[in-house]
Amino acid sequence: MRRFTLIPVLVLLTLMMAIIPVQAAEREPATPEFTMQQAVEKAMFLNKGLKSSQYDADRSEEVRDYVSDKVEYNATGPAPNSKAESLVISDVQAGINASMAKKNLMVQQDSVVMSVYNAYDTILQAQEKVKVAELTLKQKDWLKRMALVGQKVGTVDIMAVVQATTNYESAKSSLEAAKKALDDDYQKFNQLVGLWPDDRPVLVTIPEITPLEVANLDYEVAKALDVSPTVWSAQRKIDLAKLTKQLYDFTDSNSEPYKVKQIDVEKAEVAATDTKDSVSKLVRTLYYSAKQLEEQYAGSQESLRLAEESQRVAKVKFEVGMATNTELLEAELGLAQAKQSLLNISCQHEIQVMAFKKPWAYSSGS
After folding, report:
1. Is residue 46 part of a domain?
2. Do 64 and 191 belong to one domain?
3. CA 307/CA 314 separation, integer angstroms
4. Mean per-residue pLDDT pooled into runs of 10, the chain (366 residues)
5. What was the pLDDT predicted at 222?
6. 197 and 243 fall within a common domain
7. What cellular component GO annotations does this protein have (predicted)?
8. Alpha-carbon gap, residue 130 to 151, rounded angstroms
């Protein structure tokens, strides 16, 4: 029986490798469906910042309890006790820090939700932008070809051809830019929900406008100020400054002048007032922006209805030879633009309403 030596076998294997192409297995982009709620839940579960904020809250509580156990009150004599006063201030500060850590956790949670809504809606808007860009390119390509045909038969001059070609190239560049922007939007969303950058999730929740009902705007502003973490923090700084002033030790030659403590109180009060004004203005601005979008939405709905009818009529006429392809393409583009406008308004309104209800999440994420 004939035996193969090692060298011929290696040569044979080498030839086989050269003849038979070996393709590395490429990962196919995943296309999982995501509702808005599913996206929020996934992002909340994966967000490391939330876990860190939870640790901060737990740590602050431990520090608060530790400091509270060390507080000693010296009530045996009229002389101030600098050490006791320092412990009291530390105890109050630790309590504020613990409460603030909890509020920061709430802000972080709301900010993650806001980020998901923004990323989700941005993809929906970018998809519509790509559709419009594709139809625009299709229309400009047709017009360019018609211009070239017209030039050949002498009905179109060279300048018209140049203009049509320029419009086509511009539309082509716009489509490429829209696709790149969509890819970037997908990447940002995928990072939030734990997908690979090249995955293309199917987003199934389409925002719809629900009018923002507010019986009393002043009441809503007051409510926002009452629950705002930034306003709460500013108020606590006033409390701490007043306590520090109240416990001032006049016998301590190393302490800052008493007047400085009064200045600290006034400074904290000014900062708190400024914070309240900022939150108040933001809430009112968000409300009026949302109401303006609602008015625009009604007009866009009518524009969409007219665009749908125009496209339907153009298609019927084209099929029976009563309309040109140019007219049909124009009607199709108009319909796509009307849909894009309506979706943009819906997405913007959704974010504005969320921000109105939780302005700290909006300002934190902006």
Report:
1. yes
2. yes
3. 10
4. 50 50 63 97 93 82 75 46 68 80 88 96 98 98 97 94 97 98 98 96 96 96 94 91 84 83 95 96 97 96 97 97 96 98 98 95 67
5. 96
6. no
7. cell outer membrane; efflux pump complex
8. 31
Tell me the C-alpha distance between 144 and 163, whole Å: 9
- State the Cα–Cα distance between residues 173 and 15, nearest whole angstrom: 46
Per-residue H/E/C for the chain: CCCCCHHHHHHHHHHHHHHCCCCCCCCCCCCCEECHHHHHHHHHHHCHHHHHHHHHHHHHHHHHHHHHHHCCCCCCCCCCCHHHHHHHHHHHHHHHHHHHHHHHHHHHHHHHHHHHHHHHHHHHHHHHHHHHHHHHHHHHHHHHHHHHHHHHHCCCCHHHHHHHHHHHHHHHHHHHHHHHHHHHHHHHHHHHHCCCCCCCCEECCCCCCCCCCCCCHHHHHHHHHHHCHHHHHHHHHHHHHHHHHHCCCCCCCCCCCHHHHHHHHHHHHHHHHHHHHHHHHHHHHHHHHHHHHHHHHHHHHHHHHHHHHHHHHHHHHHHCCCCCHHHHHHHHHHHHHHHHHHHHHHHHHHHHHHHHHCHHHHHHHC
- Which of 35, 361, 358, 350 is closest to 211 using CA atoms? 350
Show the tokens assigned to 73: 């009150």
Residue whose token pair is 């190393």: 254
Among the candidates 145, 180, 206, a domain finishes at 206
Same domain, 212 and 73: no
**Amino acid (1-letter code) at residue 338:** A
Dig out the tokens for 206 from the structure: 């389409």
- Residues of the domain holding 46: 29-206
Torsion of CA 12, 14, 20, 21, to 10 degrees: 180
Tokens of 189: 């969303």
What is the number of structural domains in the chain? 2
CA-nearest of 207, 206, 189 to 30 is 189
CATH of the domain at 77: 1.20.1600.10
Residue 10 forms part of a structural domain: no
d(CA 280, CA 226): 11
Do 170 and 317 share a structural domain? no
**Domain limit, last residue, from 163, 188, 206:** 206
Domain membership of residue 219 (yes or no) is yes
In a domain, 264, yes or no: yes
Q: pTM for the whole thing?
A: 0.84
